[in-house]
Design a protein that fits this description.
The protein is α+β, with helices and mostly antiparallel strands and about 120 residues long. It contains four helices and four strands, in the order αβααβββα. The longest helix has 18 residues.
């Protein structure tokens, strides 16, 4: 960074992402970001959720957060989706490429993408 103006420009670009992560919606996406998750590729998954949720116009409905260890390291990266009044959905072996399908099918249309869940995972 070379100036306060450059810092202000970065702040403006990031406002939408920070506000989206703190929405008042009833859906929460939590990405496991402990050491094992990060080593398995959780950072690009988190970034993809922030990007795709914003692109889909779901920023008011969906909160994207990160959490520590979820406890199932062999399935990392792990993403949990919490929705008021429903059971938690756990997605495993996530990639940034799978995020678009989850945002479209699950977060937007309410249909769990079973093939990516812990119950649907095939080694």
């Amino acid at each position: 960074m070379k100036s306060l103006a450059e810092l202000a420009a970065i702040r403006e670009r990031m406002k939408d992402k920070v506000a989206m992560r703190e929405s008042d919606g009833n859906l929460r996406v939590s990405v496991g970001m402990a050491t094992c998750g990060i080593a398995a590729g959780a950072r690009p998954v988190l970034n993809a959720f922030v990007e795709k949720v914003t692109e889909a116009g779901l920023a008011e409905k969906v909160t994207v957060t990160q959490t520590g260890c979820i406890g199932i390291c062999q399935y990392e990266p792990v993403v949990e989706v919490f929705e008021n009044g429903k059971d938690k959905v756990t997605y495993v072996k996530m990639t940034a490429e799978k995020v678009a399908e989850i945002v479209e099918q699950h977060l937007k249309n309410g249909n769990v993408v079973e093939k990516y869940t812990i119950g649907g995972y095939k080694a």
